[in-house]
Amino acid sequence: MVGSLDLPLPRNLFSILLLQVSMWGADSFLVIGPPEPIVAMLGADTMLPCRVAPAMSLENMELRWFCSQFSDAVYVYQDGVEQAGEQLVDFKGRTELVKDYITEGRVAVRIHSLRVSDNGMYTCFFKGSDFEEAILELKVIGLGSGPRIFMVGPEGKGIRLKCTGKRWFPQPEVQWKDARGEKIPSLSEDETQDDDGLFQTEASLIVTDSSKVSCCMKNPFFGQEQVETISIPEPFFPRTSPWKVAFAVTLHILGIFVGAVVFLAWKEQQEKKRAQEAKEEKEKESKAKESLEEELDWRKAELYADWRKEHFEAVAITLDPETTHRNLVLSESRKHVSSIENVPQNNDAPTHQGPEESETIFSVLGQNCFNMGRHYWEVEVSVGTEVGPGARWALGVCSETVKREGWFVESPEKNFWVVAYKEEEIRALTSQPKSPLLSQCPQKIGVFLDWEAGNVSFYNMADGSHIHSFTGITFCGTLRPYFSLQGAGISVTICSASGHTENYPDSSPKTSVTHLRSFDMGVPQEANSLLPPKIVSVP
Do the beta carbons of residue 380 and residue 444 sit within 8 Å? Predict the structure, then answer.
């Protein structure tokens, strides 16, 4: 027993640490939540999504969503069923597990009929042989009624106005403005919360001259605002003037009868005005809620490609043979393109490329044209195991009128919005060099074009992750799908609109001869680039 204590301590510690690291690395995973807060309307439904990396099945794990403490369970999934006994009372009957992609490592908890109390931070906790967690933030917003402006009465040398709004969340920002749009500080502000946690706001102001005054209430998080404007006529202000003296004498002469007539007419006008304002206010509130719900749906779609596809139209892309470079080979279906360097050459084909040819980008356009709407298509890229130096591909969209002869620059300034693969790295092609987006070549890439929003986005369709987006673009003219290839071992296949691809074997030696014999016919190289390419049938 004593001898066992004399073993070298550092060596024992190293062995134990090595064993723990090997055990940890075998089943370790990472839980990932949304990178931005989840924004949802009060009373609507929303989801709290989480996923694991690397992707794996979660069916046999313990999945738990909780609030501030581990015991404050929002939803618990264990042994393949919901564990309702650990759930907080506030969430009973309002939550469910969305597990359509549970075998791929993606799940979410849907919360129905959002309340103010649902606003805050959440944690999703996944436990198998190991455990990990991720933090999520849910922001619940409510656009209340108002603002409404009331004249309280004369005060000092002016008139006191009161602006009120009800059932807002979070607390709205209140701002008075004059007829020129300049801000006026409030005399006082008062906020209260009702039993549902919604804010009621009241702000006061004293105006001293006749003009239009506006009261604006704005949601501080999402920027949605509502405005009410009032115009106060001169007779309401307590000032001494010749006109007021004459009016007072006249009013005294006419007496109570004229005053009653004026009051009744004014009251009828005010009632009509209030009824019209109430109608306009209801319409504004309805439009604001619809706009907000559309924006929330779109933000959700930007998180994952599977959800984004629901908002875009799938397009069956076909390659245009009239735009194909002579060093590229199209399949008979016009869904597959490869570099001519992929095709074995026979003795009749030239084996040397001049310096001008080596500086040429080999490209082809899709026949489809876009000048409105939202569209997407998927592309499978094949990179051989023995690609040569300089092998590259690029794909995306470009303007129909871009220059593609000889050497040209693929960048947004030249109306190209593409990502490219070269030297085992994926980069976005811009005028300013950027760091690599990926260190591996995705097998299938999705291209999403939103014409009205000026957005071109690329996604790895294997796991639905986002690669890159070009945003804030003002498109002019017609856009077309764009592809360029260079080097042996590179080919591109257009997926069908249903998401499936066809199998295209390598071209035969006869195909190579068909393209290269144009050099043996005495046609100059410059003229040869203008000849339309031949479509080669690929068995």
Answer: yes
pLDDT of 509 reads 33
Q: What was the pLDDT predicted at 242? A: 61
Tokens 């009372």 belong to: 89
pLDDT computed for residue 8 by the predictor: 45
Taking the C-alpha atoms of residue 223 and residue 366, their distance in angstroms, rounded to an integer, is 41
Task: With a cut of 50, list the residues of the chain below it in pLDDT.
Answer: 1-26, 342-358, 501, 504-539
- What is the pLDDT at residue 53? 94
- Calculate ∠ Cα 130-134-135, nearest 5°: 155
DSSP 87: B
Q: Which residue has the tokens 């080596």?
A: 358
User: Which stretches of 456-528 are DSSP H helices?
Assistant: 509-516, 525-528
Instruction: Give start and end residues of each alpha helix (H) in 352-466.
Output: 355-358
At 12, give phi and psi (nearest 5°).
Answer: -65, -45
- Per DSSP, helices labelled H in 488-535 are 509-516, 525-528
Spatial contact of 305 and 461, defined as CB atoms under 8 Å apart: yes
Contact 334, 535 (CB under 8 A): yes
- Two tokens at 137? 């933030």
Q: How far is CA 344 from CA 202, 347, 385, 392, 529, in A?
A: 81, 10, 16, 19, 22
